[in-house]
Design goal:
single chain, six-stranded parallel β-sheet, 27% strand, 396 residues, alpha/beta
Length: 396
């Protein structure tokens, strides 16, 4: 028998391969990629849930789940270690005589309908595990109720020149949805689908079951479930969101989102005590900055030893920057050793890498405009030899 009904539970899609992040996701799922000095990407939707009063989160994993599973654990860092509800890892499993990976986002939820039914919720919140943003989902839920909606989709205004990158939602003056455009060349509006949905569970369950019976379906929310709801004239509304939001599915966007944290003109604030981003604490010692160090406009997380120069960069936990090394406009992930004399410009360095003496990675924007050649990337655990040169756009 149910202990009690949950009004709304969240289902967090965290099983993507993240192939566009290349070497950074060769051994880990995209939501487990480090971000912002001390976080991982999944910290943001998990913290949003807690801050929104949602205490039951199913985390649907698939690709390279070991690091992500260990990181989430029992959900304790986010206050999601509960006997009833809390954080629950939901990998694909055999429902009959054959095992099957999640075929698409809709199929992932379909395979876990029994989990949802355990809590008999009235509403289900669907989230993606690869976005950086702070959002109070309880306000979106109130909006969903006020509109008497069957489905509510969070939408953010994007520049017209970027609409071709997104699913676009066209709405009436009351925000009711009348059309979807998937990455249009010439969009009718600038309302981009954020991949955040609230459904009435009874409605969603019905459409998931119908979709699973369709042999021609891609079993995807954007391609199948949402258009079918619209075709059947269900009540669908867009929820306007005006805060910071970034899809960090590419190397460029991941670099940009990290740089946004040290840009005072960008509206994302990690120091807000009323809406904290929680993370797993590894109890590193305080960072040490020597007399030879020079640090400007940068984030330096705990457990670091800085003896060189760091400018406009994000240095994650446990990094060592030796004397004479210079790091500019770069994202240096956890437990990296940058040896004496190394020069790093416009780079992302993956976890546990070693950068040899006098190595040169990337190139200064004084020589080239960054948009013309892109960033250099060194993969997780990679060793760059003394004096080695890694060119812009090169991914090792």
């Amino acid at each position: 028998m149910l202990e009690r009904r949950k009004e709304c539970i969240a289902m967090l899609l965290a099983g993507g391969q993240g192939s566009r992040l290349k070497v950074l996701t060769s051994d880990i799922a995209k939501p487990a990629v480090p971000f912002g000095g001390k976080y991982r990407i999944i910290d943001f939707p998990l913290s949003n849930c807690v801050n929104s009063g949602i205490d039951t989160v199913g985390i649907l994993t698939q690709y390279q789940p070991l690091v992500l599973n260990a990181y989430v654990g029992n959900g304790q860092p986010w206050g999601l270690n509960r006997n009833y509800g809390g954080a629950r890892i939901l990998p694909p499993y055999a429902q009959s005589d054959r095992s099957e990976w999640y075929k698409g986002t809709a199929n992932a939820i379909y395979q876990n309908m029994h989990f949802i039914d355990m809590y008999n919720p009235e509403y289900v919140l669907i989230l993606s595990g690869d976005h950086i943003y702070k959002m109070d989902y309880s306000k979106m839920l109130e909006y969903h109720k006020e509109k008497n909606a069957d489905c509510t989709i969070a939408a953010i205004d994007v520049p017209m020149e970027e609409t071709h990158r997104f699913g676009i939602i066209n709405t009436n003056p009351d925000h009711s949805i009348y059309e979807f455009e998937e990455k249009p060349e010439h969009a009718k509006s600038t309302n981009a689908n954020m991949g955040i949905y609230i459904f009435n569970w009874k409605i969603l369950k019905k459409y998931l079951e119908m979709d699973e019976q369709d042999p021609n379906s891609s079993n995807d929310f954007g391609k199948n479930i949402l258009p079918k709801l619209l075709e059947d004239k269900q009540r669908m509304f867009a929820y306007p969101f005006s805060g910071y939001w970034k899809d960090v599915g590419t190397l460029d966007s991941l670099w940009e989102a990290n740089m946004d944290l040290i840009n005072p003109s960008v509206p994302i604030e990690l120091k807000d005590d009323d809406f904290k981003i929680y993370t797993r604490n590894y109890a590193k010692p305080p960072s040490f900055v020597s007399g030879t160090a020079k640090i400007e406009n940068s984030i330096v997380a705990e457990g670091c030893v800085i003896r060189g120069t760091v400018e406009n960069s994000v240095i994650f936990t446990g990094c060592v920057v030796e004397e004479g090394a210079v790091i500019k406009d770069s994202v240096i992930m956890p437990n990296i050793l940058v040896k004496q004399g190394a020069q790093l410009n416009y780079t992302i360095i993956g976890e546990n890498a070693v950068i040899g003496k006098e190595a040169v990675i990337g190139r200064s924007p004084k020589d080239y405009a960054i948009n013309a050649w892109g960033i250099a990337v060194v993969g997780t655990g990679r060793k760059i030899e003394d004096g080695e040169v890694v060119a812009p756009k090169q991914v090792l």
